[in-house]
Task: structure prediction
Amino acid sequence: MKILAIETSCDDSGIAILGKDENNQLKIMANLVSSQTKIHAPWGGVVPTLAKREHQRNLTPLLIQALKKSNLLLPQLFDSAPQNARLRSENKIREILSREPDLLKKLLPFLKKYQKPAIDVLVVTVGPGLEPALWVGVNFARALAYFWNLPVIPINHLEGHMAAGFFQLEKTGGTYNLQATSYKLLLPAVCLVVSGGHTSLFLMKKFGRFEIIGETRDDAAGEAFDKAAKMLNLGYPGGPAIAKIAAKFKPTSYNLQATIYKLPRPMINSGDFDFSFSGLKTALLYQLQKMASKEIKEKTPALCAEFQQAAADVLVSKTIKAAQKFNAKTVLISGGVAANELLRQTLAEKLKKEAPKISFLSPAPKFCTDNAAMIGLAAFQKSRRKSAFKSWRALRAQANLRL
Ligand code: KG4
Ligand code: ZN
Result:
């Protein structure tokens, strides 16, 4: 089975092709992401209308590239379909993409120029996310599914983030080999999905069944990183920018400043598994208001280090407490913020010390941030059930989709 996965829930356009090779091993044949960070950077956050425009421009070129990389791109030599049938399907595509004219402009010539590729199923993120952005991917999948007569598996974005963590990805000669880990050995698992839009703790007792045990009451952790970076003039996205500057902080020479800049660990002892990151961001703002701009500039590494540590401390503490309470065999973290080295390290070390029996899973940083391969991985798991396959007619973007 070969699948084509599409991800457009936020500001990354992603196309991936996954398949099983001759040894029955899952393989990521292509995983392409076109990041829009430069376009959104001047606004310090994602602008939905710009994201919609960029997804429309990106998807067809990414699809061509992914098919080429997977040796699945074949030119149309001779179209045997009668003229009126061709016109009918072209009109249907126009109807499906009536709200995505830029996408239509690129997709129609592609469909005429190339043959239907050897793909068996389409997979697309239907939510949660930014509604206009989600619709571009969903309508792209609908148009392709209609034209190529393929079924579609709709995927929840958060399920995608978690699926990336449940697989061990090993790079071999340009492609990633996947070893599907046996779920049974890993469950129950406590999964932290921490990104620009989400900070949620899930308990997975049975394969594919998620119970939410905690979530942020205000900002997502990634959102707090992004806002903090904006206050410090570090650009967007804030998470990697803060991590990079924090690495310059040398605790030995700056020790004193580190204690002066003590930031709160919101809700760390709240007794539940909810989070709050808006207070952390505000505490940083108050701290900056007390400082002269020269001092801020000089001490930015110390401020970044403290901010990063505060966020990591809360995430790690709550995740471990949840894992202990629910007798988890596995702790899994994924999502953009899970790419943070300090967070990964702190969690791994604390688990080893406080709960050595619990195993720790996290995808490589490249698979933590948004990508289409993770959406394809989630679909591979679901594809065992016939009910996972839908007709393109049934597909809708659902901005507030819950697991
Ligand atoms: O999962 P993702 O790519 O998109 C969403 O679904 O939101 O996550 C993006 C978020 C951004 O807020 C970004 O600042 C944050 O993840 N992020 C990081 C790091 N890399 C990305 N935060 C902290 N440290 C990082 N290294
Ligand atoms: Zn995400």
